[in-house]
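Postdoc handover notes: sequence design on the structure in folder B. Input tokens:
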């Protein structure tokens, strides 16, 4: 990253000292790795080239901030949980996709359809991962494209997981633009709430595209206010009677709950739209 020269020129001596201290503190943290999760003070000074007085001053600051820990038993330093908390949001995003994809592909193959993962914040919901069966010729949405909150099972599962006031904000916006569409959305959300309460997932029957059936399940990140939604979309001609509700829906719930368990999430059922 290139920093404008006038910003550098305007920095004070204290700013420059803070920047230098930060850089040296990062050096200490970067000395640790999988093979060396704990290091002595001597090893850290050798790895960073820091003088003894500077090292201990920075080490004390990092320990106080919860980024570094010191073991009296081993006389060694190690990474503290505070640093993991800072990185958790990025770890969270990567882990959900990595953990989920194999299961998503298995379900897509079983259902002869596609399984997608959406990520939402506020009133924005986008596709971040997609698995599709080889025999499925339905439309394949691009990763990063937005998902309709009103006309898809994915969108309604997301609205049900939002805080009530946030969901209501979207309902009011839709109603203001089209009263009939707003009334239909309210009806669909009531159905979604009931379906989630009874079965753990909500459904869509040709709402966005007439020939497509879908189920969706939400899960919430433990590290942020972002909400993930899994959906399974299947062409109607590939479905046996009641297969969506009795087979694919429960399998999608199992997928979502297994990812929650793997990542230590707790389903936020109390945040469902009311």
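Designed sequence:
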């Amino acid at each position: 990253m290139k920093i404008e020269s006038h910003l550098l020129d305007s920095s004070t001596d204290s700013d420059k000292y803070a920047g230098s201290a930060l850089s040296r503190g990062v050096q200490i943290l970067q000395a640790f790795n999988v093979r060396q999760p704990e290091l002595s003070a001597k090893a850290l000074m050798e790895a960073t080239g820091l003088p003894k007085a500077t090292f201990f001053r920075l080490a004390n600051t990092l320990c106080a901030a919860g980024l570094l820990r010191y073991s009296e038993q081993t006389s060694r330093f190690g990474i503290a949980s505070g640093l993991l908390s800072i990185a958790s949001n990025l770890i969270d995003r990567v882990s959900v996709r990595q953990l989920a994809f194999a299961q998503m592909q298995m379900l897509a193959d079983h259902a002869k359809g596609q399984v997608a993962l959406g990520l939402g914040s506020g009133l924005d919901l986008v596709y971040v991962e997609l698995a599709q069966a080889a025999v499925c010729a339905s439309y394949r949405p691009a990763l990063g494209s937005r998902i309709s909150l009103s006309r898809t099972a994915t969108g309604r599962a997301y609205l049900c997981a939002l805080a009530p006031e946030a969901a209501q904000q979207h309902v009011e916006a839709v109603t203001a633009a089209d009263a009939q569409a707003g009334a239909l959305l309210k009806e669909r959300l009531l159905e979604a709430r009931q379906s989630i309460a009874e079965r753990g997932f909500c459904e869509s029957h040709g709402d966005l595209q007439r020939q497509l059936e879908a189920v969706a399940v939400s899960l919430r990140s433990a590290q942020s206010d972002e909400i993930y939604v899994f959906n399974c979309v299947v062409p109607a001609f590939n479905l046996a009677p009641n297969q969506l509700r009795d087979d694919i829906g429960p399998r999608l719930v199992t997928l979502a709950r297994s990812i929650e368990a793997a990542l230590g999430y707790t389903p936020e059922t109390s945040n469902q739209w009311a």
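Context for whoever picks this up: Strands lie at 38-39, 68-71, 76-79, 114-121, 124-132, 202-205, 212-220, 227-235. Don't rerun without checking with the PI first.
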